[in-house]
């Protein structure tokens, strides 16, 4: 890996799409027929590999691949798992939890939302208290939560929530949006019924599709529930199982990219190896930003996927100028997404290493100097 971004190709310190390796890019350079036996075999192996990466047993779990971006996959799960007689309880502490609410509103899926502040982790006790209250009795069929809320980078306690939930409500369906954390954080997903992620986050494939790792027993109950043709995960699963093919045009090149990316994940030492590199990336950035006087928005449970910073208070600071200055140096950071503060985000995931992080910090120094802002900040 080199930290020299070319003028055409910038380093992406973003929540996605992310930098991918040259070998993943090379893997795309091949046309494949969607109904060819070789491609059908690749899909089958990829579906199995994703269950293995999740650390789940293949006789209980299966992967359904969904064309489109991550949101399409989240939407497909909410549409396909709601029986419309019981509500979905959405637990939100950021924009992606709120997006699930929008999906339910649009699709007229009955739901309630339990919102926590964007700068705080979801509180498991509060969720259980809410579900155990007499007003909630029999009302909810599923609970949906985001693992790493990419809005801020905060990591929600999905393992503990799942354990408590299944202990107290064994029939409750547990849906987790692990879009930005899957394969980048070591996690026990054994309580999760529908686990959503996409090809272009910590797996380091290219954008084009998402996937759901489904508990087969829960998926079997989804027949006929989706009020959508394309976003029906049950029908998509049946299609993949019956002849190994997608019902509609598959993202053939992106699938070849993810196949290569999964090989590279394994070579890196699996999820543990990848999480180690991302953690190191985040440590370099967090220490370097603190030295320069930048303040983090999240003080606890901030994980190692993406970090949010307050914009400096200096009168010369203008986010767009800061962003453009870094972009001119081939470094792309990301605007903030919280509603309560002006800030920006720096992602630590993708095909990036500690050297790239050090280089970004040097570029930040240069841009601050160009903006006539003394560093360290006051
Ligand atoms: C946690 C989470 N959920 C959902 C999404 C939506 O994914 P997409 O932008 O691919 O539709 C994202 C995107 O970053 C995300 O981080």
Automatic annotation (TrEMBL):
<protein>
    <recommendedName>
        <fullName>Alanine--glyoxylate aminotransferase</fullName>
        <ecNumber>2.6.1.44</ecNumber>
    </recommendedName>
</protein>
<keyword id="KW-0663">Pyridoxal phosphate</keyword>
<comment type="similarity">
    <text>Belongs to the class-V pyridoxal-phosphate-dependent aminotransferase family.</text>
</comment>
<dbReference type="GO" id="GO:0047304">
    <property type="term" value="F:2-aminoethylphosphonate-pyruvate transaminase activity"/>
</dbReference>
<keyword id="KW-0032">Aminotransferase</keyword>
<dbReference type="InterPro" id="IPR012703">
    <property type="entry name" value="NH2EtPonate_pyrv_transaminase"/>
</dbReference>
<dbReference type="InterPro" id="IPR015424">
    <property type="entry name" value="PyrdxlP-dep_Trfase"/>
</dbReference>
<dbReference type="InterPro" id="IPR015422">
    <property type="entry name" value="PyrdxlP-dep_Trfase_small"/>
</dbReference>
<dbReference type="GO" id="GO:0019700">
    <property type="term" value="P:organic phosphonate catabolic process"/>
</dbReference>
<dbReference type="InterPro" id="IPR024169">
    <property type="entry name" value="SP_NH2Trfase/AEP_transaminase"/>
</dbReference>
<dbReference type="Pfam" id="PF00266">
    <property type="entry name" value="Aminotran_5"/>
</dbReference>
<dbReference type="InterPro" id="IPR000192">
    <property type="entry name" value="Aminotrans_V_dom"/>
</dbReference>
<feature type="modified residue" description="N6-(pyridoxal phosphate)lysine">
    <location>
        <position position="201"/>
    </location>
</feature>
<dbReference type="GO" id="GO:0008453">
    <property type="term" value="F:alanine-glyoxylate transaminase activity"/>
</dbReference>
<feature type="binding site">
    <location>
        <position position="345"/>
    </location>
    <ligand>
        <name>substrate</name>
    </ligand>
</feature>
<keyword id="KW-0670">Pyruvate</keyword>
<feature type="domain" description="Aminotransferase class V">
    <location>
        <begin position="29"/>
        <end position="308"/>
    </location>
</feature>
<dbReference type="InterPro" id="IPR015421">
    <property type="entry name" value="PyrdxlP-dep_Trfase_major"/>
</dbReference>
<keyword id="KW-0808">Transferase</keyword>
